[in-house]
Design a protein that fits this description.
The chain has 139 residues and is an alpha/beta fold. The protein is built from five helices and five strands, in the order E-H-E-H-E-H-E-H-E-H.
Length: 139
């Protein structure tokens, strides 16, 4: 039996891709980890540019960005999109970064699937739950 840990890494924004790139790259070089990268496309163009520059290709692209979509619609799409990925991949960990909606839903999906969640860097904090919205509440 392998001791390799499968880690589902959920990214949706350029900052998340940049901050998680060293983790993804190190995991790919290690025999101890099997990273599975999932893109939500919360910020489609900027995310794609960062991933291309970093030479990271998502294993799954949920492509959940829609014109003029509501926050609830995006949350629903990502939550429903991650469910079959979690079921198929059976990760040992879900990894999310920051205070984005992608990070929030990635963590929530892991929690619902009873998979431990690792959260990397919570972002800047303010004293108002509404500023920045929805990042401060997501945190």
């Amino acid at each position: 039996m392998s001791n390799t840990r499968r880690c589902l890494i959920v990214v949706g924004t350029r900052p998340a891709a940049i901050k998680l790139a060293p983790v993804i790259i190190a995991m790919k070089k290690s025999c101890d980890f099997d990273p599975v990268v999932v893109a939500t496309a919360q910020h489609r163009e900027m995310l794609d540019q960062a991933l291309e520059f970093l030479d990271i290709r998502p294993d799954y692209d949920l492509n959940d960005l829609r014109p003029q979509q509501s926050l609830s619609s995006f949350v629903s799409r990502v939550l429903l999109g991650l469910e079959p990925v979690l079921s198929e991949e059976k990760p040992d960990w879900v990894i999310a970064q920051g205070d984005t909606t992608t990070a929030f839903v990635g963590a929530l999906s892991g929690f619902y699937a009873r998979v431990p969640v690792a959260h990397v860097e919570a972002g800047l904090r303010t004293s108002s739950i509404n500023s920045p919205f929805p990042g401060e509440a997501n945190r």
